[in-house]
Design goal:
By secondary structure, the chain is an all-beta fold. Helix content is 2%, strand content 28%. The strands form three sheets. It has a six-stranded mixed beta sheet. A four-stranded antiparallel beta sheet has the order 5-4-9-10, with no helix packed on it. A hairpin with an 8-residue loop joins strand 9 and strand 10. The model is unreliable at 191-204 (pLDDT under 50).
Length: 207
């Protein structure tokens, strides 16, 4: 499954990154013609309209994300953090569109040719009380699949964008790196030995 693994709303109006993660066992072609992935933006008072209607601010994504790999999407004028450009990614064209979000706007990842709630793969669903300006959200390692609900902070780790800018590689907040918890091995099925009692209990005779 493809999930949004990190949200980054950095300094200024253009330092924007969205990190996708492939929790599945095989590579995914995000730009597949018949099943293309898209990122849509719902702003301000329309932030919850993703539940019922399509958006006019959409980004069609192209590229392949390996199994267990990440894929970065960034704003056309993004400059920070500079280390993130070393990773593969998709650059948003222009200064408007899906990557021109602020800290109270919803972002929806979906696939297919026609938008509907059933086409939603994952969402960062903001509400009227949301405010994540100058903030990064990192999906917790226990999350393996997307959601079709409003943002649940219990599923994320919130931090200042400055911590992401200075992040060490192979850490959860580093743009271009994500890891999930290993799937527990199924418990071994024990063999229960049944004791066979020789003979049957005799009933006492009546006198």
């Amino acid at each position: 499954a493809i999930i949004i693994s990190q949200y980054y709303e950095g300094f200024g109006t253009s330092n924007r990154w969205i990190e996708l993660y492939n929790s599945g066992p095989t590579a995914v072609d995000l730009g597949n013609t018949s099943d293309r992935y898209k990122l849509s933006l719902y702003i301000n008072a329309a932030r919850e309209n993703w539940k019922t209607t399509s958006s006019s601010s959409n980004l069609s994504i192209s590229g392949t994300i390996a199994a267990g790999g990440v894929f970065l999407i960034y704003h056309d004028f993004t400059t920070l953090p500079s280390y993130a450009f070393q990773n593969n990614g998709h650059r948003s064209q222009g200064t408007t569109g899906a990557m021109a979000y602020s800290g109270d706007d919803s972002l929806v990842l979906w696939k297919g040719s026609t938008y509907s709630i059933n086409a939603v793969v994952d969402v960062i669903g903001m509400t009227s009380t949301s405010n994540f300006a100058d903030t990064s959200l990192v999906r917790k390692s226990s999350i393996r699949s997307g959601t079709k609900e409003n943002l649940n902070l219990a599923d994320w780790t919130q931090m200042s964008y400055t911590l992401v800018d200075s992040a060490a590689s192979d850490t959860a907040r580093y743009l271009g790196y994500h890891a999930i918890d290993a799937v527990p091995e199924p418990a071994a099925i024990g063999v229960v030995a049944l004791a066979v009692v020789a003979g049957a209990a005799r009933r006492p005779r009546r006198c």
